[in-house]
Amino acid sequence: MPLLPATDENIETAAAVLAAGGLVAFPTETVYGLGGDAFNPRSLAKIFEVKNRPRFDPLIIHIALPGALEEAADLSLLSGEVREKVRLLISRFWPGPLTLILPKNPKLPGLATSGLSTAAVRLPDHPAAQKLIRLSGTAVAAPSANPFGYLSPTRAEHVAGLLGDRIDLILDGGPCRVGLESTVLDMSGALPRLLRPGGVPLAEIEALIGPASAPAGPSAGAPPNPRSPGQLGSHYAPRTGLTVLSPAEMAVLPYDPAGAYLFFDPSSRDQWLAGPGRKAVPDGGKIGALLDAGTEKNREFRVRILSETGDLTQAAANLFDILHEMDDLGLSRIYAEQVREEGLGPAINDRLFRAAEKKQAP
Ligand code: TXA
Ligand code: MG
Predict the structure, then answer these.
(1) Is 218 in the pocket of ligand 1 (CB under 6 A)?
(2) Fewer CB within 10 Å, N or C, the chain?
(3) Total-model pTM
(4) 101 CA to middle of ligand 1, Å?
(5) Does the pLDDT of residue 239 top 80, yes or no?
(6) Nearest listed ligand to the Cα of residue 142
């Protein structure tokens, strides 16, 4: 598994791997994807196998130009009104972290959509991804490049650690700018439906095309009959058990010598650090603080914040990165603070609650 910087030359090599039916992990603005030729059933089968992903969980088809949309989708099956909304969404949010569920083009293999009559399509806002897709000469089916159910990778090293020995090539484009997966919006019915909150806030979508229905938040439990397996509770989960707490609960959380603590911003962290049994030591400018108590293990860097300035976009970009690091500490629990419900807040809280649900079930 070569891990190569995403230079023009390496992107060309990667495109040839895709065209020949191989798998390439590549950077997007959201998370790293595990790409294969969307029109090659053998490539698609390999994606499911490498991720250990159930075949009922359909893939997102990535394109490099809006004009390629109809290779994957059949817009003629939509009403004129819905088609107009799709047109508005594309001109406003593509390239970008919005995935649209649309009637499927019959030419797309059934494996790409898990037999559904709809296809998920997105145009990523990342020059390396766009160039890779363009040069491959096809559309690229790509789930997040992590084993099924685990945290999505936001760095090439995450992919190397998780799936490295099972894929042909990893293109390293540095850390992902958005850091959360795309928003998945179902436009195949009469009314828009949010299937997964993500990099484009729902409020921005609704401001453009009017109301969309949204599933109950994951804090209220996984919705029945999820139409998008991303709605299942057991997604995006670290190995370490995780507990989500409100800011008020977090502030009075007793010190757990085997715990890691993820706060939203410096003020909530400092409030907790001022409590009994904690002593902050300088953190060398990293977004976090060290605990200066107890055993050697306790001295590890395990008090972190999502954003130095209390900014939700920065928090989203740091979320998976920090969770990957915390998960590697081998502690017994991660305590994470809920963030406020605006902008990317709902998507951050969604991922936190899903990470929590898996481990709280026995
Ligand atoms: O940001 C992203 O979307 C990343 C990057 C790599 O593009 N990709 C990603 O893919 O998150 P994945 O496979 O991890 O998540 C795709 C989500 C899943 O929840 C899947 O169930 C849903 O999209 N999905 C795909 N096709 C669908 C369809 N036809 N109907 C409903 N949901 C669909
Ligand atoms: Mg995924």
Answers:
(1) no
(2) C
(3) 0.93
(4) 9
(5) yes
(6) 1
